[in-house]
Amino acid sequence: MTLKFKNRIALFNTLAMAFTTILVFGIIFFVVYNTAYSHLDDDIQAEKEEVISNLFLLQDSIVINKMPEWEEAEHSQIEVNPTFLQINDKQGKVIFRSVNLPGNQLLDHFTGNNKTFYNGDIDNQRIRLGRFPILNERGNEIGKLTIAVSREESNNVLGNLIWVLIISFPIVLFVQFITSSVAASRAIKPVNQLINSASAIDDCNIGTRLKMPPHKDELYELTQTINDLLERIEKSMLQQRQFTSDASHEIRTPLSAIRGTLEVLIRRERAPEVYEQKIAGIIGMVDRLDVLLDQLLQLARIDSGKTNARNELLQLHPIISAVIKKWEKQASEENITIYTKIPEETLVRADKFFLEVMIGNLVNNAIKYGKKNGHILIGWDNKSQSLSIEDNGIGISSKHLPHIFNRFYRADESRSSVVKGSGLGLSIVQKLATIQNISLQVTSKEGEGTTFSIHFPS
Ligand code: ATP
Ligand code: MG
Q1: Is the CB of 429 under 6 A from ligand 1?
Q2: Ligand nearest to the CA of 420
């Protein structure tokens, strides 16, 4: 059974109230019970004082004289608050009993387990008894005085009280449940409104934000959190759309170029060297498409979160040598010299394959955007555990620098058409760095050169 939130709150409140009520009712009953019985005990005590003061003691025996006290109605009648008296001598023999004691009944068959005051019944009447020693002048016990009063009235009061408490208990709980339920439903009304407004938001109106509540409470924080979440979702949706449109554009451009070339070729017969030249161009474009699809696939894999980076302890030197070997042809075409200054035994923590992709992209950029006849320096700083790739090429202006890691972002439009690339390389590098806990930094000055630094976790 699933209870509604408001009913759950009401139920918890009611349970708490039930415990409190039981406690309060218990205290009330305890106080009333004690008060009622202490009143009876006070009466018995007063009666005892009176009787003892009227007793005539002769040496070690008690002489029962006719005392005015005995004549009082309470000792002779049974109806109106009777007080029963009984005196036993030292040997336990009854030497006096008040006339109102019904039948042959005596008070001494009740024992209060040596307590002074205790309860008993006589002739269907509930009584409270008090038993006291009768002492002679030397303080020796020469008999016992037992006094009993009716506790019928106190009993009735306590009985009525119990009934009142038993009947009022469910009423209190019922009222508590209803009021809690009403209060809870009022309290969660804004939450329901929030649910309604939030569920009305979909792809089409993702720009909508929830109305902030007037008071800065938990609800305010919840609304704020949902709005922040919507902000992030909207941003990522826009990025996704942008990415899809950029990706299709990047794919469509070489495809149209291929189609255009093929249409020109098919129109009429050409000389074999024209075919050779055009087909070589098409192969170049297909290669570009191939690289682009490869990059898109890499990004999709990283984005899906299925790529797990291995945390291996790697020798940096052979990795750098392998990357340089891969790009040395392109570097020599531009007459760019690559210098490496990495101690032989340098160890880093990373995923070998990902690290090769990262360094490969950075070296490729350094060649592409480097200076003809220039140089590239690949160095290691042991103190900061970082690898730097520095070129003396065109550099990046401060206007473009913050955006170079964005997908499909290419800084220099005029060069973009000359230098091949799709603007995905650095976004891949950054993503791979993130999943390996590697931090990436770039410093650049337009016209002077660019340095990328890779800081490895220690
Ligand atoms: P791709 O790497 O996908 O083939 P790309 O090299 O153009 O294409 P990125 O590597 O992401 O894309 O680089 C983004 C942009 O940053 C480049 O277009 C370039 O303008 C600029 N850039 C990157 N590295 C350098 C560098 N070393 N010197 C100057 N500009 C750079
Ligand atoms: Mg690149």
Answers
A1: no
A2: 1
83-89 sheet: strands from edge to edge: 94-97, 83-89, 141-150, 125-135, 117-122
Residue nearest to atom 29 of ligand 1 (CA): 395
* Terminal Cα distance for the chain, rounded: 53
Check pocket membership of 130 for ligand 1, CB cut-off 6 A.
Answer: no
Q: What is the residue with the minimal CA distance to atom 15 of ligand 1?
A: 410
Both 40 and 114 in one domain: the answer is yes
Query: Which residues form the domain of 332?
Result: 308-455
Q: And the tokens for 52?
A: 């003892």
DSSP state of 203: G
Residue (of 133, 39, 144, 146) closest to 84 by Cα position: 146
In total, how many domains does the chain have? 3
Ligand 1 binding pocket mutation candidate from 426, 429, 442 (most atoms within 8 A of CB):
426
Residues 232 and 126 in one domain: no
Task: Kindly state whether residues 253 and 354 are assigned to the same domain.
Answer: no
451 lines ligand 1 (CB under 6 A): no
> Does one domain contain both 156 and 26?
yes
Distance 455 CA to ligand 1 centre (A): 20
User: Tokens 């303080």 sit at which residue?
Assistant: 139
Whether ligand 1 lies within 6 angstroms of the CB of 247 is answered as no
Q: What is the pLDDT of residues 419-435, one digit of tens each?
A: 788 899 999 999 999 99
Q: Which ligand 1 atom is nearest residue 428's CA?
A: 11
Q: What is the CATH number of the domain that holds 95?
A: 3.30.450
Per-residue tokens: 141: 């016990």
H or E segment to which residue 340 belongs: strand 337-341
**Per residue in 63-96, is it b (16+ CB within 10 Å) or e — as a string?**
eeeeeebbeeebbeebeeebbbbbbbbbeeeeeb
| β-strands 83-89, 141-150 pairing | antiparallel
- What percent of the chain stands above pLDDT 70? 92
Q: Is the CB of 422 under 6 A from ligand 1?
A: yes
Q: Which of 246, 253, 368 to mutate to test the pocket of ligand 1 (most atoms within 8 A of CB)?
A: 368
Complete DSSP assignment for 171-184: HHHHHHHHHHHHHH
Q: Which range among 44-58, 101-115, 187-201 shows the weakest confidence by mean pLDDT?
A: 101-115
Q: How far is the CA of 393 from the centre of ligand 2 (A)?
A: 14
273: helix, strand or coil: helix
Average pLDDT of the segment spanning 96-116: 72
User: Would you say residue 67 has pLDDT above 80?
Assistant: no
